[in-house]
Amino acid sequence: MRQKTFHSYSLQKIILLNLLLCLLFVVLGSCAGGGGDGDSNGGGQYAISGRITSGGAGLAQVTVTLTGANPTVTTTTDAQGNYQFSNVANGFYEITPSKATYIFSPSSRTVFVTNAQVTGQDFTATVVTWARTYGGIDDDLAHSIQQTADGGFIVAGETFSFGEGNSDVWVLRLDVFGNIQWEKTYGGSGYDVGRSVQQTADGGFIVAGETSSFGGNTEVWVLKLRANGDIDWQKRYGGSGDDLAYSIQQTSDGGYIVAGETTSFGSSDKDVFLLKINSYGSIEWRKSYGGGDNDVAKSVQLTSDGGFIVAGETSSFGKGDIDAWVFKLDADGRVVWQKTYGDVNDDLAYSIQQTSDGGYIVVGGTTPAGSNSKDVLVLKLEANGEIEWQKTYGGAFDTEDVAYSVQQTSDGGYIIAGISSSFGNFFGDIWVLKIRADGEIDWQHTYGGNDSNSATFIRQTSDGGFIVAGETYSFGAGDADVWVLKLDPNGNIGSGCAIVGDSTATPAGASLTALTSSVNGTTSTAVANTTSVSANNSSASVATQCSSP
Ligand SMILES: [Ca+2]
Ligand SMILES: [Ca+2]
Ligand SMILES: [Ca+2]
Ligand SMILES: [Ca+2]
């Protein structure tokens, strides 16, 4: 078997060489122009094959392009990372792999097929990692991030550096390397905040948060954006008090579920506020849930039965001070079960997800009895809300360690992000914990500089790494900047990135009590009003703290 590999041929040279080879191989009755992934195409009889690996393991679903064939053909790697082009004719070819958020080494290979199969055309793939700030001279904060279908990212938060006055909703569309594709502000003269963002089935985006730019008090604000950031529709929801949204998700009917808090409706002080709206923002149902004290929802998620799971906090029910509060709803907002989780001090839930076993994972913070330090709280619940296990993660006395975001990972474990002042910087570093299904720690890292840093949201990315959004006062253009970290599957950003630190937390058993609370959802009289802002382009300064490769 003969095989030659060249790395420096341009496509033009390949075409020229193939013209010459046509003359050379005319007696064989074949020319470069064959090729295909299993199809007989052009009459060639040879195969080009290889394997693509990442971290030693085969990488599936890599698009591999063979140019020099006429027409250019593509194939994808199988579950073991193998690929093959069959029925290739003699000639010169260039093989180029591509997959969002990966860099390949070499970036392409040139091969010469001459009366023999060509094997061993292997590539190694490395996950793209980076840490970047986005902002202006004032406070710029990220509250939510999601990976988009093209492998890039959508970030929502608030900016005081740009826009129409006070804070404006700020949405940044990033590519896989963290380059800004577009950035826009939305708002009026009041405070306008984006708390939650999701890509929608039509390729656009849904953003929920709050606005005080219309009519004085604060209202829930929902913006439906097109893929380019222009506004499809915009509506505010509420009553005479303050109404805020912390979480939104698209539902299977194309509409949306929105969760937050209200002082306009329900029992006294704050109540949990839920809105089910259709794909145009019209209200389908609206309910409040709560007792005589503060009751707030921080996170809502669809469940596999078509209903919803809601997590937040309550001072109306439970063991004392604030307790974490979780309730399961059917599709119409009726309570299926409801439980508080707590002890005598503050116990907080910020993020919930249904898990693959039908249960739930909840994260937040807890202050153990007799302590004045806060630790990360993780509750694994059964499908009926009973506690399967509960653990805390934290450091020294008098410090604050809190988790704001959780997601089940592809290996059945969980990724958790928040803030720690026990490890890294005393003023607070971003803290990310990768735990196993039983709560034991796989790895843990801090990310920060000399001033305070905090993460609000984390998601696993399609390459097995993670995307983290939050804020930093350590880096950027002034005051807080939006901080986005693209991590590899072990939480690293290349090697030797100075913002990455190690922490040494060990899981501790917790002893929170689950109690059944007793609310019924109350239909509110919240109204929807159309708002009329325009999307404005902003001009963030971007700084890169680390990037690899
Ligand atoms: Ca504003
Ligand atoms: Ca209340
Ligand atoms: Ca409590
Ligand atoms: Ca700033």
Question: Which key phrases capture this entry?
Answer:
549 residues; mainly beta; Immunoglobulin-like; five-stranded antiparallel beta sheet; five-stranded mixed beta sheet; 1 helix; 45 strands; 3% helix; globular; binds calcium ion
What would you say this structure looks like, in words?
The chain has one helix and 45 strands. The protein is mainly β and 549 residues long. The protein has a domain at 4-126: Immunoglobulin-like (Sandwich). A five-stranded antiparallel β-sheet has the order 1-9-7-4-5. A hairpin with a 5-residue loop joins strand 26 (323-329) and strand 27. The protein is globular. Mean pLDDT is 93; it is low at 1-8, 26-30 and 33-42. The chain binds calcium ion (4 copies). One calcium ion binds next to loops.
